[in-house]
Amino acid sequence: MFKPTEYQIKSVATGNVCEDSGWLLDFKGEEKPSLIRAIYANKQLNVKEDHCGLYCYADWLPIKRLLKCSAKPITYKSEALAKKLGLENLYITFNGYFPEKGADMRTCSFKETEAYSVCARLTEERKDDVIVVSSAGNTARAFAKVCSDNNIKLLITIPEDNLNALWFDEPLNPCVKVIATKSGSDYFDAINLGNIACEVEGFFAEGGAKNIARRDGMGTTMLSATTFIGRIPDYYFQAVGSGTGAIAAWEANLRFIEDGRYGNHKARIFVSQNKPFTPIYDAWKQDSRDMLPYDCEQARVDANTIVAKVLSNRKPPYSLAGGLYDTLKDTKGDMFVVSNEEAHEAARLFEELEGIDINPAAAVATASLIQAVENNQVEKDAVIMLNITGGGEKRFKENHEVVYLKPERIFDVDASKEEIKEFVKKIF
Question: What pLDDT, on a 0 to 100 scale, did the predictor assign at position 137?
Answer without folding.
Answer: 84
